[in-house]
Design brief:
single chain, 175 residues, mainly beta, 8-stranded antiparallel beta barrel, 9 strands
């Protein structure tokens, strides 16, 4: 799906050149294929109350500084959204971390690419403990449509809005 300026403006992105299109598929999984993991980060997301903003801190498990950013998202459809992100210095992140909202914590496992596709698998904590979701991002709508479900997945949940980060933190595990 191509995003035109009118669609972008209706979603609150008046200048499309400052946003990028994310095409993503998500799957509910039974396990993390640990033999394919090439890296992992602990991610803490703050979904800021009353906004489309997410403040993220991603800390590599193998050491190194945390990556901090503020992101604004708007869904075009279940698999396509517009995003803008700002990478933040630790001092800036600390200032914004006190905004009102709900926090979601997970460990993201990055898998070695297969057939040119990189998949990340998230293991959630807290009230979402036990939930395992995989996601893959694609450059084109054709690549998104052509991707097969991973062998460790149970079912696709791309079209199920209950499995978005914002819905999970707001509503809890789907029943």
């Amino acid at each position: 799906m191509e995003i035109d300026a009118k669609t972008a403006a209706s979603l609150g992105f008046p200048k499309l050149k400052y946003a990028w299109v994310e095409r993503e598929r998500r799957w509910l999984c039974r396990e993390i294929p640990l033999d394919r993991v090439i890296g992992a980060d602990v991610i803490v997301d703050l979904y800021v109350t009353g906004t489309r903003l997410r403040l993220r801190e991603a800390t590599p498990l193998d050491g190194g500084p945390a990556m901090c950013r503020l992101t604004r998202k708007a869904d075009v459809d279940a698999a396509t959204r517009l995003l803008t992100s700002i990478y933040l210095a630790p001092e800036e992140f600390a200032l914004l971390a006190d905004l009102p909202g709900q926090r979601l914590r997970k460990t993201r496992h990055r898998l070695a690419p297969q057939d040119g596709i990189t998949i990340s698998v998230d293991l959630f904590e807290g009230t979402l403990a036990g939930l395992i979701l995989a996601e893959a991002e694609f450059e084109t709508a054709q690549a998104l449509a052509a991707c097969a479900m991973p062998d460790f997945a149970v079912r696709e949940v791309t079209d199920d809005p209950r499995y978005t980060g914002g819905a999970l933190i707001r509503d809890g595990l789907p029943t």
